[in-house]
Prior knowledge:
The protein has helices spanning 2-5, 10-19, 25-28, 41-44, 46-62, 80-89, 95-98, 108-117, 201-217, 263-272, 283-290, 292-300, 305-319, 324-327, and strands at 8-9, 69-74, 99-104, 126-128, 139-144, 153-157, 162-169, 175-179, 196-199, 219-228, 238-241, 244-246, 256-258, 261-262, 276-282, 329-335. Helix content is 36%, strand content 23%. It is of the alpha/beta class.
Amino acid sequence: MIAAEGPLSVERYMQLCLQHPVHGYYTSKMPFGRAGDFITAPEISQMFGELAGLWAAQVWLDMGAPGGVHLAEIGPGRGTMMADVLRAGRAVPGFLQAIDLHLVETSPVLREAQRRTLEAAPLTPVWHEAIETLPDGPAIVLANEFFDALPVRHYIKSEKGWHERHVGLGPDGNLVFGAAAETIGIPATAGRPGDILEIGHVARAIMTSLATRIATQGGALLVWDYGHAESGLGDTLQAIAGHAFADPLAHPGEADLTVHVDFARLRQAAEAAGAAVHGPVAQGLWLERLGIFARAQSLKSKASAAQIADIDSALARLTAPGSSMATLFKVLAVVQKGMKPPPGFED
Length: 347
């Protein structure tokens, strides 16, 4: 494509690498788990999904325990978190009877994994290609490590101004970063030559859509992801393969491409859409507020020595101050105005 049509924007490059219908990373591979390229919090411990389930049930109660609520997950992985969510939801009378289940997933490989994981679940999922096809009505939407996989645009500063960063071909035929010759106007953005500005236009559009829905139809959105609470300059594009960092240009479609989520821009988009926003707060703190230590103690009371060691290891990975899962990862909630702060976001 580059040889025939010219360089691609970083956004287009990421989109093709991740979502190409034949060669895309998420279209053709199973990325999760020890045999994959990375592991997510729900795969580390059942406690994560259980607390997410109780969070969703408490939000439903705070909504007045209505019927006809849609429980949706965007990018559900192998279905591990949703299985834990539904199991924990049984503890709240009436919750499972009041909801239906929707999963937004484009990958055929992951859809099949979700189908197997949720085969014995108390609710049968309805799958969607995009959030736009979710049915109207109040919804509780969960998004774990979803926004980091959305493509971004890069802009690089020169003495003349800002240029869009591209992916093109070097003299040896390999992929290289370059920049458009023309400059574009980016008002009120400082920077020195060589600085990179990363903007997630796709993430902002999706947040606007979800927040508008919540503001007008009711419900809540819960986002877990790694990123920064304040906007700034810098290139955070990274590739992960075999649980290690890789060159994002070396093997298109063979490695996961992600960026650090700009939570400040997500918050601005949600507030502009008329929703109330809480957070972001550090993921470890959020888990602590929801009672992960008490849950761990309960699990350990009925566990073997080996199982206790696994629980302690998972707990440390999710909550220890030096763990990126506890500090780099953050949690953001979007709710309809007038609702009280959801669990984990109280003052």
